[in-house]
Each structure stands twice: as structure tokens, then as C-alpha cells.
Amino acid sequence: xxxxDRCGYGAVMQLTRVRIHPVKSFAGFDVPxxxxxxxxxxxxxxxxxxxxxxxxxxxxEENALLGLAATPLADDxxxxxxxxxxxxxxxxxxxxxxxVPVGHSRQGTALPAGEAADAWISARIGRPLRLVWQPxxxxxxVKPDYGGRPGDSLTLADASPLLLASEASLALLxxxxxxxxxxxxxxxxxxxxxxxxxPNLVVDGETAFAEETWxxxxxxxxxxxxxxxCDRCVMTxxxxxxLVRGKExxxxxxxxxxxxxxxxxxxxxxxxxxxxxGDTVAVGDALHVLG
Length: 291
Hints:
- There is one protein chain.
- By secondary structure, the protein is of the alpha+beta class.
- It has four helices and 19 strands.
- The chain has helices at residues 3-6, 115-125, 167-183, 250-256; strands spanning 12-20, 29-31, 33-37, 40-41, 47-50, 70-72, 78-80, 89-91, 100-101, 109-112, 130-133, 162-166, 201-203, 216-219, 222-231, 258-259, 262-271, 279-282, 286-289.
- The strands form four sheets. Strands 1-13-12-17-15-14-19 form a seven-stranded mixed beta barrel.
- A hairpin with a 2-residue loop joins strand 16 and strand 17.
- The protein starts with a helix and ends with a strand.
């Protein structure tokens, strides 16, 4: 079945949510609009957590990271914690410090945020941790395995500059989960929320998983290449509210969305922009399927 069969070249949908995650594995939050840069949304995943040896630490092993909040500020600064929380901490971008080795793929070093930030995170997670900042997002290439072309780069995100997910796809996934539970003689699980999948862009639409057939889209005035589906890991099984790990959505994805030994939900996007350009996407923007 072709794209035109499923959703039509030129088909129009709407952007319903825009989300950024200032620190990799911290909680994300919705914004009404965001600037699109060649390496992703402004303010998204330029900061990350590592252990004292520089190994990447994510919510895959430390679920509690998903419960921490951060807000990007002007000049690449960061607020750790909620804005009106007495325990929040302002962290300046550490531009004039020596880089430290880090274990993020294709990112050999990063800049350490300093002792105060390290202590803030360590106290909340209960083990020694460090906060680091990516000073140059143009230096980390998108892997060719993930559709990267010469000049494509990304922040400290896993695979691509942006991730897009569809409300229609999530609705069908929840239908699958409920039907599977009935088949097992169990109560239907609570509906999965989109936050589990940590997308940057969420769209509406009538056809579940139609996004997997797209090659190019335009959202507002910004064009994106669709560089493939996103394989999902155990991090999606952590409830973003309770921080408790369960079986969903991997159990349902493994039955209905498994191929090549992996489970899939959402698609990876690369902005088609001049290296110095930055346009915006906003909730309510139309999404046009270009091919």
C-alpha cells in the first residue's frame, strides 16, 4: 500500500503537541512552539547525566531521572527543578572549563556543569553522578544506519534530531493492549500516555502508523526527512507519573509491532535546513505529507 493510498500526497494533519527534554532522561514538557535547528529543537537534550567515569546514565537504569525537571534558559543556561521550587538550581552553560570524557556514542567529550549541579542530581538519585553539556551539536553526526547524511548532526538524543509520534497510532496501540488483556483473562490496563515514548512532535490523523510510510513532511514552514521508524527500549515501560516499571508497552509492541527482533513506535526526523537557519513549529501547524 502506498503513501497516497493510506494518507495521500499532500494530506494535511495537525501538530497537536511540541515537547522538549532539556536533560537527556529527565522529564519533558509541552511548549506552544519551538525553534527548529539542524540538530533538533532548541533546548532539547543538550545536557545529560554521566557517572564519575563518564559513562552515560539514563532512565533505563535509573528510573528516578524521569521524575526530575529542568528548564532551558537564555544563553544555554539551565534551571534544575521546578521554577518556583526552593530547591531549584540555576546552572550556567560551562563554556570555559576543560572537557571530560563521556560515553555517548560519537560524542567523546562534554563540558562538566560543576560541583553544585552534580550534588543536586546525586542527592536526588542517591549515587554520585555528574551533569554535562554538549557545547557543539554540529560535531555529533547522525549515524548512517539511522539515515544520516553528510552534515547531519544531533544533540545527545539517541538516534535522530527529532522524534514524531501519532495520536492515531497510540490509540490503536491502546486498543491492542486492551484486547490482549481480555484474551488473557485480565482487566484492561490503563491507557498508555504519549509521554512514555518521549516524542518531540505529536500529530493527529485518522490512520494509525501511516507515518511509517512517509519520506518527507512539512510542518508549518519547516521541511523534514523521515529517516525511519524508532525502535523502542525498556525505558518506555517506566510509568512517567509513578516511575514504576511494568510490562507495557513492550509486551503489546512485541506482539503487534515486532520485526527484525525489535519493537517499533514513532518515526525519526531530520530537519531540512540551512546550517545557520532556525524556523519554528507550533501547536496547530499543518503537517503536509510531501512524499
